[in-house]
Amino acid sequence: MRLRMELFVDDMDVSVGFYCDVLGFEVDRRAEDYVSLRRGAVVLGLGPVAKLPEHTVGRGFTRQRLTGDKGAGVEIVLEVDGLDELRALYEHCRQRAAISEQLGLRSWGLHDFRLADPDGYYLRVTHGDSAAQGR
């Protein structure tokens, strides 16, 4: 099994720019109403909120449902290979985006930093370390 996340965004070009310029993703595939981004084994799909139905019955995605905080209750964790790569990415991101929480060592033994994308999706960027994977 693999995981691919699909995020509904307000402005496709702004979101593609953020993920490519700030976090180092590359465009894997682009259509009029969908972009697939890749960085290593991570695949993110971006789709426009405007293409969603206005209302539906049930819990499906709708424009009305996403008028609030799109990322509420979800933390997207992006993991790089090591602390050196994390530090380099942090410096790169710091020059290009607002950082929500600075790079630091957490109580569970990993370093991370946090930021939000243009639509408010909350991202935690950390490093892999098999000795500290308790979280």
UniProtKB/TrEMBL annotation:
Signal peptide: none annotated. It comes from the Bacteria. Pfam families: Glyoxalase (PF00903). Gene3D superfamilies: 2,3-Dihydroxybiphenyl 1,2-Dioxygenase, domain 1. Residues 1-128 form the VOC domain. This is VOC family protein. It comes from Actinoplanes subglobosus.
